[in-house]
From TrEMBL, chain A:
The keyword Iron-sulfur does not apply. Residues 85-314 form the ABC transmembrane type-1 domain. Belongs to the binding-protein-dependent transport system permease family. CysTW subfamily. Part of the binding-protein-dependent transport system for phosphate; probably responsible for the translocation of the substrate across the membrane. PANTHER family: PHOSPHATE TRANSPORT SYSTEM PERMEASE PROTEIN PST (PTHR30425), PHOSPHATE TRANSPORT SYSTEM PERMEASE PROTEIN PSTC (PTHR30425:SF1). The lineage of its organism: Bacteria, Pseudomonadati, Pseudomonadota, Alphaproteobacteria, Hyphomicrobiales. Gene3D superfamilies: MetI-like. Pfam families: BPD_transp_1 (PF00528). InterPro entries: MetI-like, MetI-like_sf, Phosphate_PstC, Phosphate_Transport_Permease. This is Phosphate transport system permease protein. It is found in: Cell inner membrane; Cell membrane. It comes from Mesorhizobium huakuii. Keywords: Cell inner membrane, Cell membrane, Membrane, Phosphate transport, Transmembrane, Transmembrane helix, Transport. It comes from the Bacteria. It is a multi-pass membrane protein.
From TrEMBL, chain B:
InterPro entries: MetI-like, MetI-like_sf, Phosphate_PstA, Phosphate_transprt_permease. Residues 70-273 form the ABC transmembrane type-1 domain. The chain crosses the membrane at residues 21-42, 69-95, 107-128, 134-156, 188-208, 254-273. It is a multi-pass membrane protein. It comes from Mesorhizobium huakuii. The keyword Amino-acid biosynthesis does not apply. SUPFAM superfamilies: MetI-like. Gene3D superfamilies: MetI-like. Belongs to the binding-protein-dependent transport system permease family. CysTW subfamily. Keywords: Cell membrane, Membrane, Phosphate transport, Transmembrane, Transmembrane helix, Transport. The gene is pstA. It holds the Pfam family BPD_transp_1. It comes from the Bacteria. This is Phosphate transport system permease protein PstA. Its main location: membrane.
Length: 327, 283
């Protein structure tokens, strides 16, 4: 009895030590994880700060005219971002116009029409394709799509629209193969798996009971899709489209191969052009002079701001649909 | 009566038209993607030989291989993963465990999602300003850091998701026998979520092994064998970019073969990653 009483303080103090050690290691681990989480914020902040710092020289030299000037002349050191901005927006817009209807169509096919045994393999194939590096699409565009367009499609379209006022400007000029339209097509095929898999995922969140009630009162598949599924998932689809738009705007390699890198604004979709990311990729390592480099970083800053806004809107929309389904 | 019948007819017709369009869309999409993979296989396989894996990248107009580029890609990918994974796993752990309901987690999740889809060329510019400019030269280590920055958001996302799937009862059981929180996380939560976290790492490898844009002005390129991390290093994607845009036939052929190697690697990694999580779901 007395031996136990004598041992008790020793046990208690060693237990206290263990508890203290546990608390210490726990707070260290807690601090490490917290620091890593904060590092993620620091990264994005660092990206923003370094881009602003790097582009300061160009922005202070050219001021607002950097955004409105079309000239891009390394010899006279006059730089304006209008042509790359124009190319970026036009290629992404056309890509979205092509890819969204196709993507939603494929998603409807996968959720409503496809025979059950094929659904998983096709859905999986689509998701795998979303992971293929963009350089693959670029090399295909350069060696397969561009020559095909140049020799077959473009001469035909040019001859068809030759006499049509309005459209002959849109499809004018010699068929280069590379250019705005080719880039937009490559972008479209690149973001297609992406849009399809997000749309399919949000379609799957529609409660079966909603669809079944619509079928129950005699709706056709199209009516169920159009009146029930799409309205229910509208925000999610919009979020997916914005996410895809963010990708298309920032996509570098797939476009760099087939855009032609020409700093001018042309109304013709067949004309070579350039985008922000393609300009940076093509010219950054060859840029001589601080002002040239700084102007390229300023292009990067513009791209960063545009994609940040688009992606923030997209995430906000997708977060709302997540909140509603109570995931 | 006849109006009802004709309405029924027109609805059925409309349904038929729209559903046909959907099938056509699926046909176009799948055929288009099949076309790309077909061309890749056809053109890439033509150049596959042992010399691709044993010889250096050739000077213009000469035969050669891709050995230094493959080596550079592997080295930079490994360093990128080694640097990026711990940070990503720790940040994901904070978000799912210690700070599950904190404001910081909401903000980090939002920012991380934006980093996840931010243009990779921007990351390249960032690392250029951060490392290449102060150091005064391009280097493999700068390329690896750029890749690490791309790894982090992928790993953060999957780690958080997977830890959130671990049932709380498991954690409570650990806490009830007196284990401190970090032991519960390490021995219970990590163990339960292991295959999911590994999947995230594999997906991150798949993502960075094909990235070109962030390497263009960080690691640059190198015609020769180099294992010096402080010097420019060749990588498969950048070599493909350079060779594909060149006028030399041998280079273009090597570009196709390199593209095939990357695609097969990425597909294999993604399928392996998916089979890991798939098996867990079956259980």
């Amino acid at each position: 009895m007395s031996a136990v009483q004598e041992a008790l303080p020793a046990v208690r103090s060693s237990r206290d030590a263990t508890v203290r050690r546990f608390a210490l290691t726990d707070s260290i681990f807690h601090g490490m994880t917290r620091a890593a989480a904060i590092l993620v914020l620091v990264l994005l902040g660092g990206v923003a700060i370094s881009l602003v710092a790097g582009s300061w020289q160009a922005l202070s030299t050219f001021g607002f005219s950097f955004l409105t000037s079309e000239s891009w002349n390394p010899v006279t050191e006059k730089f304006g971002a209008l042509a790359p901005i124009y190319g970026t927006i036009i290629t992404s817009a056309i890509a979205i116009l092509i890819a969204v209807p196709l993507g939603i169509g494929i998603a409807i096919f996968l959720t409503e029409l496809c025979p059950r045994p094929l659904r998983r393999p096709i859905g999986m194939a689509v998701e795998l394709l979303a992971g293929i590096p963009s350089i693959i699409y670029g090399i295909w565009g350069l060696f397969v799509l561009a020559p095909f367009l140049q020799t077959t499609v473009q001469p035909f379209i040019i001859s068809v629209f030759h006499g049509v006022p309005g459209l002959n400007g849109l499809f004018a000029g010699p068929p280069y193969g590379i250019g705005l339209l080719t880039s937009a097509m490559i972008l479209a095929i690149m973001i297609l798996p992406f849009i399809t898999s997000i749309t399919k995922d949000v379609f799957d969140t529609v409660p079966s009971v909603l669809k079944e009630s619509a079928y129950g009162i005699g709706c056709t598949t199209w009516e169920v899709t159009r009146r029930v599924v799409i309205p229910y998932t509208r925000i999610g689809i919009m979020g997916g489209v914005m996410l895809a738009l963010g990708r298309a705007l920032g996509e570098t390699m797939a476009v760099t191969f087939v855009i032609g890198n020409a700093h001018r604004i042309s109304t013709s979709l067949f004309a070579p052009a350039t985008t922000i990311s393609a300009t940076i990729a093509n010219e950054f390592t060859e840029a001589v002079g601080d002002l040239y480099t700084s102007s390229l970083v300023a292009l990067g800053l513009i791209l960063f701001v545009i994609t940040f806004l688009i992606l923030a809107i997209a995430r906000y929309m997708l977060m709302r649909i997540d909140a509603r389904t109570g995931a | 009566m006849s109006t009802a019948a004709s309405l029924h007819q027109s609805r059925k017709r409309k349904n038929g038209v729209m559903m046909t369009l959907c099938v056509i869309a699926a046909g176009i999409g799948l055929a288009w993607l099949a076309l790309i993979l077909g061309a890749l296989l056809y053109k890439g396989l033509a150049g596959v030989s042992l010399s691709v894996f044993t010889e250096m990248t050739p000077p213009p107009g000469d035969a050669g291989g891709l050995l230094n580029a493959i080596y550079g890609s592997i080295v930079m990918t490994i360093i990128g993963i080694i640097v990026g994974t711990p940070i990503g796993v720790l940040a994901g752990t904070y978000m799912a465990e210690y700070g599950r309901f904190s404001k910081l987690t909401t903000v980090v999740r939002f920012i991380n999602d934006i980093l996840l889809s931010a243009p990779s060329i921007i990351i390249g510019l960032f690392v250029y300003e951060l490392m290449v400019r102060p150091m005064g030269h391009f280097s493999a280590i700068a390329g690896a850091v750029a890749l690490a920055i791309l790894v982090i958001p992928v790993v953060v996302r999957t780690t958080e998701d997977m830890l959130n799937l671990v049932p709380n009862a498991l954690r409570e059981a650990g806490t009830a026998i007196g284990a401190p929180r970090w032991v519960v996380i390490r021995s219970v939560a990590y163990r339960a979520a292991l295959s999911g976290i590994v999947t995230g790492i594999l997906l991150a490898i798949a993502r960075i092994s094909g990235e070109t844009a962030p390497l263009l002005f960080t690691a640059l390129n190198n015609q020769f064998w180099s294992s010096n991390l402080n010097a420019p290093m060749a990588s498969l994607p950048v070599t493909i970019f350079q060779f594909a845009l060149s006028p030399y036939e041998e280079w273009q052929q090597l570009a196709w073969t390199g593209a095939l190697i990357i695609t097969l690697t990425v597909l294999a990694l993604s399928i392996f990653a998916r089979s890991l999580t798939g098996r867990r779901e079956d259980k």
